């Protein structure tokens, strides 16, 4: 018998992978093209056939093995010939280079699939599954290839594997929960790089984040700024490894494929051709703040100067008579508006839970955050840490409502106050002996001392910073 051993449609043999080993793929492409009548198909139809059929034939082999460059070039050559010449024997000039036609449509291309990028994306998926997967196969693969440094899989190009490893490490990030699965030195959990990349000499291994956080005298604490541990709090949730290019944090091959291309947004392309925006006529509406029927309500808001830029959050808790019980104004550093909104909601819920105030309604002017809480799906991995905590604290709240920004001015002013002064403040208003609806007796001195001690923030005893929301006319398209 000549040629490689074919097992489940994949050629297997020792040594370098040859183009002749994939003769069955070439024969299948030729037989597919021979059945198409190009005279009866428009160029738009040919693009659909190339993307859905020709570019899909090598995917199975690309997942299970490594496609040589000769095979990839042959597939793209047949695709280009079918698009320009057709299959009727007549040759036509290829007016545009094939690599330019493979660019996204917003960049002037036709969006034809690039098999090189597909193979890289599938290799990234394989490496990500081996490093972070929880399946039985992932556990076996980690033990099987543990002796290879770096992680290289026999039979697959070393260049492709090294490129895939770089992409996995640069785009994976851990969101700490318990901290027992996060490698303190080698995993990306703080900043834009791992601690191992900043340490001179061989870094230590096997140190978990949980061990460092629980031990205040752990020697590894000297490798990061002390402020990191002040902002970090471990929970009882499981550690989660997220994929940064995906908004949900879940790994997708499509998001990995998009990493290999630099695409413009549709608005940027339109503006480059001289198009401008045209807004609709404004309509005047009348809105107001709605008091809670029972118990208390929480208004929260986040602000970001630059998006991303300096951001902060604020909020206040009020009763049905519009009396402010407490308010907060926290500075968050650099972030976008969604991070500010999520952190403001988390801070407000934590303050209400700590003081013992029962909330019947929460108001926010971020529709993205409100809908994500209602649907139970985190909109972005960037806010997963605070979104998860807020989700757990929302169990006893009857309603979480989206409101117009004009009815949320108190929280908005508090958020901007935090940015301008770069401060963390809590504003409280308690009588000497005030019995809440839950039967708890609180004093201003005792509650202020406890909040400041646990949260590490400045207490402002007066409420001159706030003002009541009234009927406000505003314009909205």
Automatic annotation (TrEMBL):
Domain RNase H type-1: 299-418
PANTHER family for the chain: REVERSE TRANSCRIPTASE ZINC-BINDING DOMAIN-CONTAINING PROTEIN, REVERSE TRANSCRIPTASE ZINC-BINDING DOMAIN-CONTAINING PROTEIN-RELATED-RELATED
One function term, GO molecular function aspect: RNA-DNA hybrid ribonuclease activity
Name of the protein in its database record: RNase H type-1 domain-containing protein
Lineage of the organism: Eukaryota, Viridiplantae, Streptophyta, Embryophyta, Tracheophyta
């Amino acid at each position: 018998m000549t040629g490689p051993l074919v097992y489940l449609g994949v050629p297997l043999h020792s040594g370098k992978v040859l183009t002749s080993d994939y003769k069955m793929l070439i024969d299948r492409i030729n037989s597919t093209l021979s059945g198409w009548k190009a005279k009866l198909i428009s160029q738009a139809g040919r693009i659909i056939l190339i993307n859905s059929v020709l570019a899909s034939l090598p995917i199975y082999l690309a997942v299970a093995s490594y496609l040589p460059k000769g095979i990839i070039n042959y597939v793209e050559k047949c695709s280009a010939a079918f698009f320009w010449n057709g299959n009727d024997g007549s040759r036509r000039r290829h007016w545009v280079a094939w690599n330019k036609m493979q660019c996204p449509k917003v960049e002037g291309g036709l969006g034809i699939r690039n098999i090189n990028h597909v193979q890289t994306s599938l290799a990234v998926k394989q490496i990500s599954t081996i490093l972070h997967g929880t399946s039985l196969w992932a556990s076996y693969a980690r033990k099987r290839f543990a002796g290879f440094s770096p992680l290289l899989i026999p039979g697959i190009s070393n260049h492709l594997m090294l490129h895939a490893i770089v992409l996995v490490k640069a785009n994976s990030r851990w969101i700490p929960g318990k901290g027992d699965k996060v490698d303190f030195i080698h995993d990306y959990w703080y900043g834009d790089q791992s601690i191992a990349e900043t340490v001179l000499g061989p870094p230590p291994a096997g140190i978990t984040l949980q061990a460092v956080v629980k031990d205040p005298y752990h020697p590894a604490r000297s490798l990061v700024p002390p402020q990191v541990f002040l902002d970090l709090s471990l929970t009882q949730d499981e550690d989660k490894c997220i994929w940064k290019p995906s908004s949900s944090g879940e790994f997708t091959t499509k998001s990995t494929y998009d990493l290999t291309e630099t695409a413009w947004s549709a608005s940027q392309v339109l503006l480059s051709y001289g198009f401008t925006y045209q807004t609709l006529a404004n309509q005047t509406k009348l809105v107001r703040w709605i008091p809670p029927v029972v118990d208390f309500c929480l208004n929260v808001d986040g602000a970001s100067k630059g998006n991303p830029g300096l951001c902060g959050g604020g909020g206040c808790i009020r009763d049905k008579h519009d009396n402010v019980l407490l308010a907060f104004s926290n500075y968050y550093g650099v972030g976008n508006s969604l991070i500010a909104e999520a952190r403001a909601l988390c801070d407000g819920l934590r303050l209400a839970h700590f003081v013992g105030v029962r909330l019947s309604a929460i108001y926010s002017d971020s529709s993205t955050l409100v809908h994500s809480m209602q649907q139970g799906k985190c909109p972005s991995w960037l806010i997963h840490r605070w979104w998860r905590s807020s989700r757990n604290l929302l169990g006893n709240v009857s309603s979480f409502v989206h409101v117009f920004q004009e009815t949320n001015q108190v929280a908005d002013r508090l958020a901007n106050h935090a940015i301008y002064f770069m401060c963390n403040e809590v504003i409280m208003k308690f009588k000497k002996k005030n019995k809440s609806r839950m039967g708890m007796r609180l004093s201003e001195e005792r509650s202020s001392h406890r909040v400041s001690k646990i949260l590490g923030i400045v207490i402002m005893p007066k409420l001159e910073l706030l003002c009541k929301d009234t009927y406000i006319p505003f314009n909205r398209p």
